[in-house]
Amino acid sequence: MDRSAPLPPLDPLAAAQTRAAAPLPSDAAGLQAATQELCAWAEAAAHAAEDETALRAARDAWLGRKGGVLARLKQNWLAAAPPPRKRDAGQAYNTVAQAAESALAAAANELAGRSAARRLADERVDISLPARRAPFGPAHPVLAILRRMTDIFLRLGYSVAEGPEIETAYYNFEALNIPAHHPARASQDTLYMDAGPGAPELLLRTHTSPVQIRAMRQAAPPLRVIAPGKVYRNDAPDATHSPMFHQLEGLAVDEHITLRDLKGALDHFAQEMFGAGGAGERNVRTRFRPSYFPFTEPSAEMDVGCLFCRGAGCRACKQSGWIEVLGCGMVHPALFRAVGYDPERWTGFAFGMGVERIAMLAYGVDDIQRFYSGDLRFLSQFPD
Ligand code: PHE
Question: Ligand 1 mean position to 247 CA, how many Å?
């Protein structure tokens, strides 16, 4: 082992400070050796700085005006040198100062480059990752049923008519033979809007029947239309009521239309909706019970044989074996007069049903509120 070889100093800064505190080496060879060592230590100190803080500390230790290695060298070598040695001392000092400055600058550069590279790596976006798919949901069960109902009537030659949800009292009531103080107005209470003095009375429509009037005013008979849409009533929400729900209206006007046509069309609808086309049996029983609506005469309600107990009696049908599904009747002549159709020549039938109610029967849902819950666990169970 060569004991004369100098061991590298453990702390280049401490070594440099010690050397700088010592006086100018006494001869040229000593000065050259000290200069080389100081250059190497400056290099080592700059290189050892792992981050900005450590580098700043190294800069201060080497370049600091007070007590920095260079400041001390200036004092102990330059200022203290006797005149004949000033020149050598100055050259040695400049060599060390240049080495220290360039080593520290190089280290600063390298650190800046490294942090930029780290930021780039951190912020890297992997464009090869597959995108997260947005789930493509099925139609809302009410909409899905409404489409099935609509399709049945489209196949029978009906077309779709529309009307506004904000309706005038005239279309919602008067034109439908419901005068101002008729009790049917109280049973179909809704929200009224103040449209200002002299403006027609506006309300949220309570049924889709006003579209009957709009459709007849727009076209001459014969006519077959259905009108699906939202309706509103002042009902507290419970298992069978909602202040907003959907109806599907139907209207057929032609020469010689009779009650048999009404029964035939609606019985066909029941078979398609709950029978052959659906999950139920081929033959769904229907019955028509006398009822009352101001805009039809005679009026009826159609029941279907209970889909849950097949007529034996259960909770859904209140032990009756029958479930009410819609209101209907022959168009009252007052409506024809209101739209300018000749009531002596034209006859027709109309019907209206709750879409949610049909959906509840078709899907076996026991609470209408579930449709409006926004709960995807419920809503995504149904076929489109
Ligand atoms: N409009 C009635 C209701 O909302 C239903 C109906 C429509 C009845 C057409 C007869 C004819 O209850």
Answer: 9
Structural element, H or E, at residue 160: strand 159-160
Task: Specify the pLDDT at position 380.
Answer: 86
Residue 161 CA, ligand 1 centroid: distance in Å:
16
Tens of pLDDT, residue by residue over 59-80, are: 988 888 888 888 898 888 888 8
Measuring from each residue's beta carbon to the nearest atom of ligand 1, which residues come in under 6 Å?
Answer: 207, 209, 249, 293, 296, 327-329, 350-352
Side-chain-side CA neighbours of 164 within 13 Å: the count stands at 10
> What is the structure's pLDDT at 1?
52
Phi and psi, residue 80, nearest 5°: -85, -10
Which of 16-25, 145-154, 200-209 is predicted least confidently? 16-25
Per the structure block, which two tokens stand in for 204? 């949220």
Q: What's the average model confidence in pLDDT over 265-272?
A: 95
- Which among 262, 264, 272 is positioned nearest to 327, based on CA atoms? 262
Work out the average pLDDT over 310-329: 91
Tens of pLDDT, residues 4-62: 666 665 688 888 888 888 888 888 888 888 888 889 888 888 888 888 888 898 898 88
Secondary structure (H, E, C), 83-139? HHHHHHHHHHHHHHHHHHHHHHHHHHHHHHHHHHHHHHHHCCCCCCCCCCCCCCCCC
Mean local confidence (pLDDT), 83-108: 89
Q: In the chain, which residue ranges form alpha helices assigned H by DSSP?
A: 12-21, 28-48, 52-63, 69-73, 86-122, 141-155, 169-172, 183-187, 210-218, 259-274, 333-339, 355-363, 376-379
CB 202 within 8 A of CB 168: yes
170 vs 318: CA distance, rounded Å: 37
Q: Which of 208, 295, 301 should be mutated for ligand 1, with most atoms under 8 A from CB?
A: 295
Give the chain's domains with CATH numbers. 12-122 (no CATH), 141-379 (3.30.930.10)
- For ligand 1, pick from 167, 211, 293 the residue to mutate: most ligand atoms within 8 Å of CB: 293
